[in-house]
Amino acid sequence: MSCCDRGQLRSVDAMLDELLNKAKPVKDRIDVPIVDALGRVLAEDIISSIDVPPHNNSAVDGYAVIVANCTGKSPTTLTISQRVPAGSVPVALQEATAARIFTGATVPDNANAVIMQEDCNVQDGHVTLPTGISLNQNIRPQGQDIQTGQIILKKGHRIRAQDMGLMASIGVASIKVYRPLKVAILSTGDELIEPGMLAKEGQIYNSNRYTLKGLLDGFNADIVDLGIVEDTLSATLAALTKAAESADIIITSGGVSVGEEDHVKTAINELGELNLWKLAIKPGKPFAFGHVNNTSVIGLPGNPGAVFVTFCILARPFLLKCQGAEHTNAHSFKLPISFSLKKPGKRREYLRTRLNYEHGVATIENHPNQSSGVLSSASWADGFAIIPEHTAPQKGDLVEFYPFSELFGNG
Ligand SMILES: Nc1nc2c(c(=O)[nH]1)N[C@H]1C(S)=C(S)[C@@H](COP(=O)(O)OP(=O)(O)OC[C@H]3O[C@@H](n4cnc5c(N)ncnc54)[C@H](O)[C@@H]3O)O[C@H]1N2
Ligand code: MOO
Predict the structure, then answer these.
(1) What is the pTM (predicted TM-score) of this model?
(2) Domain MoaB/Mog, which positions (predicted)?
(3) Is there a domain that residue 5 lies in?
């Protein structure tokens, strides 16, 4: 077991680099129908075998014409020679005639403009068209969206709702994705009991288990929920051995600070290896990472606020990489803060904050209680404001903001 010296903190970036270097992406692929593909990671490039749209089609309800037939200075009147509803196959347009056409319908091969019906006058099977018709107006060209042979989505891409629609648009019904990660979670601490039980003096409810369950559901992970493992070495050894047989990753909460005897640390060290770190992150300073056989172990600190932050900032990118995802970064943007910090800190702070809009302009509002033992702030917040180490931004300063929608969910 190793740990930083007293006072020496490891940077979040260095820890993240190590985690990403040690992440072992899953190799096994499974077939899923696209309807069940949300949040999964593609294990193949998706290549289109068709053009989308497959033919030139009309963007409006109106009349398809040959532009050369209507170039005069005064409005042209043409006979309506065919009717083309969406889904029908038109014939070539006779010279000096117009086709009644509807939105999405295939434009006759030789027609090269569609005029909106609101701009036309129709009488006795004839249509009078406005002047100034331009070539290809209101025609959506074949292949405008996707062309045959085009890679529409790349291996390693995490599928979002619009990607499901995109795959459907090229007629793909089922795809290969990486199998879901199997993640075992366990909570440590003699003080913990489960919701639904009556708390005796000294006992608190296990909240981390539920935060972690919710966060992992956002990854489509298969969760092996070990609950609160009985606080004996033999029970801990048995639970971890069993979890390591099938799980890719074990995530524990609690028991990673410098405190007394802890069976999880002892058991992991007996079965494999666990390194303890003090990180320059607030909340979440104590952090553990190691393995039991081929199963990675992440030890999050017990404080509920710290579990939430360290999962989002450290475990999330690690899990995404293990899941085969190409991109593990979350997008952030800079916004002014509506508060001032008293003094710079040694640790990079992930404040639980909220966006406040006044006259359409957003500022970052801070929750008044940023204690690592407080979960209400995370529940109240809709993102993290990041305060770099050794800085104390003041009201109006621009600060990086990570919306929670970037960190979990299938945005
Ligand atoms: N002497 C020092 N003490 C502490 C240090 C330090 O550097 N030196 N670091 C502090 C920091 S920072 C953190 S964070 C905590 C982390 O402690 P542990 O990971 O060992 O966690 P525990 O002691 O087991 O629990 C901390 C806190 O969280 C509550 N808890 C634990 N599990 C759950 C759960 N599943 N659901 C709800 N609440 C939970 C637990 O009751 C404690 O209150 O260490 C500091 N100490
Ligand atoms: O890092 Mo701990 O979560 O500050 O209390």
Answers:
(1) 0.92
(2) 184-321
(3) no
